[in-house]
Specification:
The protein is α+β, with helices and mostly antiparallel strands. It has one domain: Formyl transferase, N-terminal domain (Rossmann fold). It is about 40% helix and about 25% strand. The chain contains 2 helices and 4 strands, in the order H-E-E-H-E-E. The chain has helices at about 5-10, 45-70, and strands at about 15-20, 30-40, 70-75, 80-84. Strands 1-2 form a two-stranded antiparallel sheet. Strands 3-4 form a two-stranded antiparallel sheet. Strand 3 and strand 4 (about 80-84) form a beta hairpin. The radius of gyration is 15 Å and the shape is elongated. InterPro entries: Formyl_transf_N (IPR002376), Formyl_transf_N_sf (IPR036477), GART_AS (IPR001555).
């Protein structure tokens, strides 16, 4: 998958990253947190990839903290998040 290349080719202005619980289907789990990343006119696949990586470095620790402190849980029956 070449998500950054696809975003650039599509001409979108914003991309980002998502941290979610894992399901059998790709990208199907309940979303814990997201970070948006602007796409600039002169972006390359490499420059965009670096900014998305920086966003991931913010999102993953935030998601882990939410789960570890039980501020968010996954209801196994419904597959939905429960926030506290």
């Amino acid at each position: 998958m070449h998500a950054h290349r696809q975003a650039l080719d599509a001409g979108v202005r914003v991309t980002g990253c998502t941290v979610h619980f894992v399901e059998e289907s790709v990208d199907a789990g309940a979303i814990i947190c997201q970070e948006s990343v602007p796409i600039y006119p002169r972006d390359t696949e490499e420059s965009l990839s670096e900014r998305v990586k920086s966003a991931e470095h913010k999102a993953y620790p935030r998601a882990l903290e939410l789960v570890a402190t039980e501020r968010v849980k996954l209801d196994l029956d419904s597959g939905k998040l429960v926030w506290s």
